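To whoever is on call:

I kicked off a structure prediction for a single chain this morning and the downstream step that reads the tokens threw a length-mismatch warning. I double-checked the sequence; it's 287 residues and nothing unusual in it as far as I can see. Pasting both halves so you can look.
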Amino acid sequence: MNIRISNIKLYNLLSTLILWYHFHNELLLFKLYHHQFTFDKSREVIHAFIKREIESFQDLLDPYFVWLGDYSNQYIRGKEAFLETIKLESSLPPLDISQEEYAVLTHEKKTWITYGRFTVNAHGKDRELYSSKIHFTFVWKEDKDGLFLLHANACHVIDAQQQLEEAMQARVFDQIPTDTFMREAIQKIQIKDINGNVHFLFPEEIIYFRSDDKLTTCFNKYGSFVARTTLREQEHPHFVRIHSKYLVNISFIKEIYRYKAILLDDTVLPIGKERYKDIQNIIGIHK
């Protein structure tokens, strides 16, 4: 009788240990494949392709990878079939990437869906700088060896104000001013907005930050977004604190007078009285 009771206890103990083991493994996987990890994977695969690092890029693809693009021939099923179509990519010069934004749409146990947008920059034969805006959606699949890209859908973006006849030409590159192009060597600033989107911006793309209690609005060349961050966390050599509520990119300040800063787009921001002299000196050095 005692032996039977002992066996029951041992069985219950083993069952509990097995359940705990599976729960612990699930918890480890959840910690591994969190949002930031998936952002990083999405950014890694984009940068590998744009930089022509094809070996690193192909290691991130699932064997059943499916690619959908702008054109009729960009409907490709299978990793090997896709790699066959990009053989020439490795021989081309690397491109530069800017204005990056990544977000997680949803995820299940073994599937993550991310989306976002970025801009690719390149010099033409005439040395003019050209850019292409791209929107994308990725589907990531988890297996025993890691997280792999199962599906990618990417499209080139044409601004709404362009003429219809220009849009029909499906131009890949739109000319942009050369002063908006920044080399990849400059470290980008990573900011997560209140909607969960992660923005990667060069310092020169940020105009100013405005603080409002625990929220901060980032005004940049492409619009604005709100993030749960502080001005102190965003301090940078390119920026100057002109007020308790404002952190401004020095290169966007056109002039200052009477405790006000006038930006290049004629936006007027307040300057704290106790900061005015210091701001004068800083502006004088950088002008």
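Update from on-call: the warning came from a stale cache, not from the record. Cleared it. Sanity check on the structure: DSSP finds six helices and 17 strands in the chain.
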